[in-house]
Amino acid sequence: MQSIFHLAFHVRDLDAARRFYGDVLGCAEGRSTDTWVDFDFFGHQISLHLGEPFATTRTGRVGNAMVPMPHFGIVLALPDWEALAQRLKAANTDFVLEPQVRFEGQPGEQWTMFFCDPFGNPIEVKGFRSLAALYDK
Is 32 helix (H, G, I), strand (E, B) or coil? Predict the structure, then answer.
């Protein structure tokens, strides 16, 4: 079975959301009204609605760092992850957790980065040499 994940959440400004999700992340815009806009978030659907973003706290431990919870994200093949990391760096993104490798040389080796959209919604992007290794122990 193949499925597409859908997540709807709040942003304060649809034009700023379009710049970030469309221009910086490279997500294609879908349907919209004057109160929401959809994006193709790397093959999944996100719906950004005008409103107050959800509260987050830095309570998630990733190695020695505390990252925002809750958060959402995407898992990419490593070349796509590297390209996105370069895109984000070129856009002067303020990273919560700089792009880095975790579990190097171990099962589940992965690259990760955390950042927030302009409204404080936290996003994690993971990269794997093989997506089949996502659940390796």
Answer: strand
- Helices within 2-133 (DSSP H only): 14-17, 78-90
Is the whole-model pTM more than 0.90? yes
User: How far is Cα 123 from Cα 136, in angstroms, rounded to an integer?
Assistant: 22
Sign (positive/negative) of CA torsion 130, 123, 88, 13? positive
The C-alpha angle with vertex 71 and arms to 100 and 16, in degrees rounded to 5, equals 95
What is the DSSP secondary structure assignment for residue 71, as one 8-state letter? -
Q: Which of 30, 31, 56, 45 is nearest to 119 (CA)?
A: 56
Rounded CA-CA distance 5/2 in Å is: 10
Predicted local confidence at residue 63, as pLDDT: 82
Structure-token match 């990269």, residue found: 127
Contact 21, 46 (CB under 8 A): yes
Neighbours of 113 (CB within 10 A): 22
Q: Tell me the average confidence (pLDDT) per consecutive run of 10 residues in the chain, 137 residues long.
A: 94 98 97 98 98 96 92 97 97 96 92 97 97 89
Instruction: Look at residue 62 in the predicted model and tell me its pLDDT.
Output: 86
